[in-house]
Recover the amino acids of this structure.
């Protein structure tokens, strides 16, 4: 479970880094920055939904810290 979450997080950070690279080098000439940021958003939403699903299935447990 940790491996999957870490892999998704690295994908999110990598997509963000590629968006920064395209932003600096393309100077608005292409849509590669937008595409990289779209991938980042998709990965972030997928990771969030997967964590919710894993909690629902009992694969991961909450920490027990009370929310105020």
């Amino acid at each position: 479970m940790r491996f999957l979450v870490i892999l998704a997080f690295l994908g999110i950070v990598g997509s963000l880094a590629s968006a920064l690279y395209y932003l600096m080098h393309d100077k608005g000439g292409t849509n590669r920055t937008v595409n990289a940021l779209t991938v980042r958003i998709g990965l972030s939403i997928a990771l969030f939904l997967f964590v919710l699903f894993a909690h629902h299935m009992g694969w991961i447990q909450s920490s027990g810290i009370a929310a105020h």
Summary: The chain has one domain: 2-57. The two ends are 28 Å apart (CA to CA). The helical segments are 2-26, 32-57.
